[in-house]
Amino acid sequence: MHNMEIDLDPVFYPKSIAVIGASANPMKWGWIIPANIISGGYTGRLYLVNPKYDKITKLKCYPNVRSLPETVDLAVFTVPSRSVPELLEECGEVGVKAAIVIAGGFSEVGNEGKRLEQKVVNIARRYNITLIGPNTMGIYSAPVSLCALMPPVRPIKGEVSMISQSGNIGTNMLAFGRVNNVGFNLFACSGNEAMVRCEDYIEYFGQDPNTKVILAYIEGIRNGRKFMRVVDEVIEKKPIIVLKGGRTRSGAKAARSHTGVLAGEMKIYEAVFKQLGVVIARSTDEMLDLAKAFTRVPLPKGNKVGIITWGGGYGVLISDACEEAGLELAELSEETLEELNRLLPPYWSHGNPIDMVGDMNREAHFKCLEILVRDKNVDAVIALGLITGMDFFEAFRNFDFVPGEFIEVFSSMWKNYDRIALSKIKELIQKYGKPIIAVTLTAEASKVQSVMDEEKVLGYTSLERAATVLAKMYKYYEHLRRKKSVRGDRLGSP
After folding, report:
1. pTM confidence score
2. Does domain 1-136 bear CATH number 3.30.470.20?
3. Closest CA to 382 of 323, 445, 335, 450
4. Residue 1: its pLDDT value, please?
């Protein structure tokens, strides 16, 4: 049991679930949600509740929660909002521990909805029921294979947990994570947050041993003091990445009609987030970029970046991107320069970025990468063009004057270099404890991105994304360093 005011264990670790308002109509949430729970492989016991049916498909349907063979841990309500109070009262009377209310039509629609929502909250408090929502798209829990969600999303299991005040954004992140091989451990769409609020989830995720990174889509915060206290405690153990909705006047207006929350002044939120060490994402793509980074590579212990590139122009652009993001180019040591001189042609850049001037010797690329990573002046490395994703020699296949056996040998060799490079990057991260970010610069970028994600190598198809992510990781590290130095702690891994 987690040491919290609100107990979320029966929500994320239920041994038994009742879907109240189960339906035989595949177009209704009362059918879709239990179908998601079953197909997701839930490890506990599932009961369907609706007095209209004896059976739905092959499952027995019970008339009410009193008729169930046991008292369930979690009730999922798929009934209209007006029916919730009476049915929640029944749940309270039999001892149900938690409830997820899917329906909208509460505080987000005006005063009448607010009164109905308050009535539901009062019932939940009277019976000590942990209430999720209302106006929610559900929850996901990898440890018990629970997909109690409205859309048919199948996340992959991993180390990221997320709280979202938007069901669409949250469930899309689960789906995007599957495509990008970013796994999730726990997820909740908090909806109107009538009882359980975003800071409660953050506190819970902070105590969860299987969560390494916390994501949050936030439109507004109702209890600022508790939010700040919780985040200040959790941030020392795990990075918290926040995407704030309602940053503009139009967005704030939309937030009020979405979840009934006041979005607030963005400048105030940003100041608070910066003070707390929260990592701010500017888009869902950037949130996923950051989630990848914090789960795949160690934090940079400084802001000095080493760059290795296959061409000079991209070296110029990544230098600009790093400085604009608040990073600095590392000054390479004399020892590093001497080693590189022995490996590269005499006309190489002789500095950072290391421009390999289109040298085709891929083995030399790997050696240069290790030389750069182990330089004491380098805190992190961005490698451009190391993962090509292309068959360089394939283009010669249609030329009669090029021997076929030549193409076969070198084509096979070239393809194998990418696999070697991915393995080498992971080996060097493990050996030197520094982050390495690969950037692929090819027309085959999407294919290469998929390969890097499959291998869990941190890589992007844009050098600006790489610089932005690295800078935000460093800011998080700096926050931890300053905070712990004030107390006189030694800074280790978060």
Report:
1. 0.91
2. no
3. 323
4. 37
